[in-house]
Amino acid sequence: MKNIEYSTYLFDFDYTLADSEVGIVTCFQFVLNNNGFKNISDEVIKKTIGLTLEQAFIEMTGIEDSGVIERYRKEYVDKANEVMTANTKLYPETIPMIKKLKEQGKKIGIISTKYRYRIMETLEMYNITSMVDIIIGGGDVKVAKPDPEGLLYAIEKLNEDKTRVLYIGDSLVDAKTALNANVDFVGVTTGTTTFDDFKDFPYIKIINNLGELIQESYA
User: Fold this and answer.
1) Using CA atoms, how far apart are residues 205 and 184, in angstroms rounded to an integer?
2) Domains and CATH numbers, the chain
3) Do residues 122 and 18 touch, judged by C-beta distance below 8 A?
4) Cys-Cys with 206: which of 28, 74, 152, 187 at CB 3.0–4.6 Å?
5) Helix or strand or coil: residue 127?
């Protein structure tokens, strides 16, 4: 364990702070079924969570035509407007963890491929919007994770030193993002990525849930 006092904690959203699996799978299956893809399982869909919508549709369908993929994206967003927020639940450890970090004077941010307004809807539902200092969504960057653009932009806007920043995420995309930004990383196994999956990437620790983050305190 590094002997560092982190002052800023930046998080991925889906499968890290929140379980939006039901909403995401519902939206993908709606679009896939409407367009003739009847045999893509829920498990295959879950493994794409964390990718951009465009990347996920390309990976699942093999279609690379940008016009078709954009149509799928729009269909997904329209369906998500109906069902996503109601089917997104913060993990039980999320709010106590955020409150504890704020009591310690830490800055909190979210960097996700999910649209910022969608993240805001969930935070507002739980009345914790004021506890989050910055949100960088998929529409706020030119290049999605694992490119470090969003993570570095958040660090810059928070006027923070990278050496005092910890990024927490559930996927290899998040691990790669932290590596590309040269920021310390903690992996959490609340998604589909296992402890062994994370082993090829630098990390401070791998945890089972966010409750362990405040138990460790990381300075």
Assistant:
1) 10
2) 8-19+89-216 (3.40.50.1000), 21-86 (1.10.150.240)
3) yes
4) 187
5) coil
* Cα gap 138→27, rounded to integer Å: 17
Considering only CA atoms, which of 38, 37, 41 is closest in space to residue 62? 37
Residues 6+ positions from 9 with CB-CB distance below 8 Å:
101, 106, 107, 108, 109, 165, 166, 168, 213
Closest alpha carbon to 16 in 160, 192, 147, 139: 192
